[in-house]
Structure formats: structure tokens, C-alpha cells
Amino acid sequence: MNTIALGVAATFTAEPLGDALRFWLAELGVEGDVAFAPYDQVFPSLLDPGSVLGRAGAAVVLVRAEDLVNGDGARDPGALDAAADDLAAALRTSSGAAGTPHLVAVCPASPGHGSPAGHARLAARLAQAFEGDPAVSVLTSAEPYEPDPEAVHDAFADRTGNVPYTDRYFAALAGALARRLHATTTPRPKVVVADCDGTLWDGVVGEDGPDGVVIGSERRQIWQELARQVAAGRLLCLCSKNEEKDVREVFARHPELPFGLDDVAAMRVGWEAKSQALRSLAAELNLGLDSFVFLDDSPVECAEVRAGCPEVLTLRLPADAAGAAAFLRHCWPLDVTAVTETDRERTRHYQEERRREQARGEMSLADFFATLDLRVTIAPAGPEHEARAAQLAERTNQFNLSGTRRLDGDEQFVVDVRDRFGDYGVVGLTDVRVDGDTLRAGAFLLSCRALGRGVEHRMLAHLGALARERGLARVALSFRATDRNQPARDFLATLPAAVEPYDEEAVWYVLDAGDAAAVVHSAVHSAVYSAGPAGERAARPARTTELAAPAAWEAVERIATRLTGAEAIMDAMRAARPVTEVAGASPVEATVMRWWAELLDLAPTSVNDGFFELGGHSLRLVQFMARVRAEFGVELPFDTLYTTSFTVAEVAKVIEERQLADTDDEELAGLLDELAGLSDEEIDALLDSGNG
Known about the structure:
Layout: E1 6-10, H1 17-27, E2 34-36, H2 42-47, H3 52-55, E3 58-63, H4 65-68, H5 77-98, E4 102-106, H6 116-129, E5 136-139, H7 155-161, H8 167-185, E6 191-194, H9 205-208, H10 217-231, E7 235-240, H11 244-252, E8 264-269, H12 274-285, E9 292-296, H13 299-308, E10 313-316, H14 321-329, H15 341-344, H16 346-361, H17 365-371, E11 375-380, H18 386-395, E12 411-419, E13 422-435, E14 438-446, H19 455-469, E15 474-479, H20 486-493, E16 498-501, E17 507-512, H21 513-517, H22 523-529, H23 532-539, H24 553-562, H25 566-576, H26 587-599, H27 618-632, H28 638-641, H29 648-676, H30 680-691
Parallel strand pairs: 1-2, 1-3, 3-4, 4-5, 6-7, 6-9, 7-8, 9-10, 14-15
Antiparallel strand pairs: 11-12, 12-13, 13-14, 15-17, 16-17
Helix pairs in contact: 1-8, 5-6, 7-27, 8-25, 10-14, 12-13, 26-29
């Protein structure tokens, strides 16, 4: 996510969100800007391809239940469901036409007018409508940044300019939206590697012994976070400088912990450099180092891994257990937007692969394939495959012929594989359309864990048979070379295919339909293009550091340690817009200058600078007035605001005068109340003492 333009449409005035979203773009090193649709134009913006949403790289839609239905409709389940269904249909139309991520946030109901029950119903209905849908993501709150309930709504700004929320809530909402967008547009890591001493437990097992290390309640939270990663389909590995028997003994003595060694895909416990251990793990798992996250509390070990494996996202955990657990909760790369059944079974798949590796080493390659009992099922993709198909397109690199991430063919076929060692699940996908006498496959991809077993040959034979059934003469496979899909290129080189131009980057590999249907696998093919984990290690070692870009660990650590709540986000936004200190400025003038620096295009440098000269407009004016009311307890008169004398000094003077007037009024009212409670004799006594 290096360049992106955000389009925002809302059922209320949402422009204050723009500053916070721009802050997050800058924080993530992303070039782009934020554009807003006209007020309350959600449906037209979704349905018009030329709108702000249609032109954006990502669309953000903000709604309240009370805005989608009129009057008491927010309390009518039928009206709410109909509105939710209409909105869902519009979101599907927009996301399908634009092919860009769409985020929809159901925002809190206003006190007194909205209905919390209506909010909950709308949120649940939309979340259900897009469950497992990679194109539309639903946020039902601003968690984990949402402020306390009393800091969410701004009744004054809502009444004055239809801005229903505080700056603090907009900052929280922007954080939640940016985090979800990051999760939907940035490749997710596949492997989490954790240190042991100082990470999984307090103490050093080699010195304190298995009984001497401590796993308290706060350390247990770290285990829970890692168990959540396993449940989401990440492979969990251990990498520790210790004796393996000691580490295993700790696990044996704590069977009650959230995960055990059966949940660990692989481990490297010994005395080699951790960068070498990670390269060894990458080779064993047949995964690129750029899909690894390494967690360690030691700055020395983190520095060594960053130098030796810059492809790995290496993160230094805080030394204290509570800080480390909080770090993991706010570690954006570990977020998961959707979990498929294949994800849940991923560790088991890799453990079965290890048994296959062992069997392969005990017999010849030909004998191994002869006894594998491979069963391949190829079937049309149904709704139940939608999430897994999108996931395969997004994650598959090595055997992805065209390198595509989008599926736009007329038909899709999913490939399910199993053998005598276990069930691989859905590991392959083809996306085809008919073009004249040719069946063209825009996507032809297979998970690396099923490579080298002949599955790819059966996929091609299936397309050949399908073409012949439909009276088509040819099968064409789209191919575009990437820096990751050499196995796909090697596979194509074994086929009796002609190469025809496609576009500037891609070509078609074209086969006679009969030749495609007759393609079969042999052990020779596996040796030719180095498929499978063993072949991958033998033919193509892990990518060298010269080819890898360093992982952006600084930004991840900064976000996970410093930007963990709405107030922290607002502090960082203020720090990014410094204000010039003016000697002699009063405290009220200094506060006004700081607010204007945050709100306006240009920061004031003098108490004589004017609001509108610095880029102020009516919406910024509402925001400023709301801050004055919240901080100083006064409302500014309009005859002061809409004048050329609306300067820092003048508005500060008005604030001070109105504070003083309010104070005098309160003192007078208090004195009158006190006098009302006195008897005539007491009043006469007070007068006499005053005259004396």
C-alpha cells in the first residue's frame, strides 16, 4: 500500500475525519489524499462510477442507522433491514465495478435521537451480508481505539454544523479504518517465529531450569495472542538459543497453556545465529523469508536478524510482559480479516508434509509417487469457495502463471487434493472464459504445498477435457513472469505449447485441446522444475539479501507502542503540526494558536493572524467553536466570527470577556441566593457592619 487515494461518503458531516486519515497515510509512508463526497450522498456516490468513491483507490462509507431511515424508522426492525439490504446491494455494485477495497463503518447512534438497538441491528445485518467477502469490509465500532462513551458525541457541533462526533472519536475511527485498510491491502505474514526466554516466559530456562521459569497471567496473554495467530492459519515456529530438551520440558510441564508443541509447525532450538535458524526454517517450510515475522525481546538478537535476514519483519517486544502483550494486540501485520477452514488446518498440513518428506527420503522418487495415492477433485467454485478462492489469488506466488490477484473470468474451478498422508484442502484454482475456439485461463495457480505431485498436470488435463466437451479446439494459459513464479515458468517449458502475444507483459501458452487433455505427470517433471519443498531447497536456495527490501519494522513498532489509543493518536497529530510560540501571548491566545495550527491549512505565527486568511472555512469554524465551548465553557457570538477582525488576539479577548461575564453572573446569582436566605435582622446587621 504505497500510493492510494481515499474516497469518503457519509450520511453526516465527516470532513473532520480527513485530517486523521491523512495523518495515518503519512505514518504508513503512503502517498495519497482524502476526498469527500457531497453531504449525505452515499447511495449516489456508490452507484456512480465517476463519483469520488468510483475514482478512489479505496472507498470509505460511514453510516448511522438514524440517517438511513426517517423518524422512528431507526427503531423499526423491518425498515432497518430493508435499508441495510439496499446499502449492501449498492456496496456490491460499487466494489464490483471499481475493483477496489470498500470499508463501511456503522457509526454510533446520537444520544436522544438515535437508537442503540437500531445501530446494533444495522451493524449485524451488514456484517453478516459481507462475511468472508474480501471486497467489502464492515467495521461495527472504532475498536481498539474507540474512546469512552462520554468522549464520542459532540452535541454542540452536531447542532451547529451536523458534525456529530468529537475530534477524539474521529481520530479513533481513522485509526480503525487505516488499520483495516492495511489488513486488506497489505500481504499478511504466513509465519510467526517467537523467541522463548524473555518472550514466552520470564527467566532463562538454561539457568533457572524448566521449573524455574515463570509464566504469569501477563505472559499468558502473549501465549493467547500467539494461539490466536495459529487459529487464524499462521504457522507458529520457535527460535531460541537453548537446549531443545529444556524447551520441550517447559511445554510438557504446562499442558494448560493456550498452545502446545503440537501447534508448533517447526522449531530451531540451539546455538546457531538466529538469522541462520530463520533461513533454515524458511527452507523447511518452503516459504520466502518475506512472509516471516520474528518476535524477540533482545535488541541484540533483533539487530542480528535484521542484518542477516532483512526480508524478515523483525520486531522487538517490550521487556515487560504486559507491554509485550499490548504490543501484539496493536501489531498491525498480525491482524486477520478473514479465516477459512484451510487456514485453521494449515499447521496440520505442514506436519503432514513433514511425514511426506520423510517417506520421500526413504524410497526413490518414482516409488514415492506410485505409493502416494493422490486424489485430485476439480469442481466448479461455489459460494462456499469464494473466500478461499480470493485468498489463493492473493497469496499464491510461486505457481501463479499470470501473477494475477483478481479473478474476472466467466467460470472458476477449485482443486481439492488429498493423499495417504492427509487432506491438503482447496489448494488450486483456474479462472476461465471462452474466446472463439479457445478456452482461455486468466488464472492458473496452485499452492506451493501441492507442487510436484502432478496436481498441476491434472488441472491442465481438466481444462483440455472441458474444451473438448464444448467443441473448442485450443486451451490457452496466460503467463506473466514475476520474481516469484519460476516454478510456473518451468512447468510451462515442459508443455507442447506455442507462445502467442497477449499484452506488453504477458503471453499466452496455447495448446491443442487434445494435447492438453493428455498431459500427465512423471517423476521427471518434478526434477525438472524443482517442485515440492525438497526440490525447492535443492534447486533454488532462499532468496539472497541483495534481492530483498528491508521490512518496515520501525513503523510497525512505533504504531504498536505509541499509537494505541485515541488520545495518543491526537497527540501525535498535534506534534506533526507544530505551532510557533509567540512571546507575550496569553494562555488563551496560545491555546487558540495551537488549535488553529491543528485545524487550518496554515499555522498562525502571530496573534494578529486571521482565521480565514489561514484557510479557515465554515466547517473548520464549527470545529473551533466546539473546542472553545468544550474547553472554556463559552459560545462565541457570530458577529465576532464572520468579520475581518477574526484574529487570534480578538477571539482570545472575546473568550476572556465572556468567561468573566459568565463568572460575574454566577457570583451575582450566588449573592442573591445568599441574601434571599437571610432574615431582615441579618441584612440590617450586615449593612451596619459595612457602614462601620
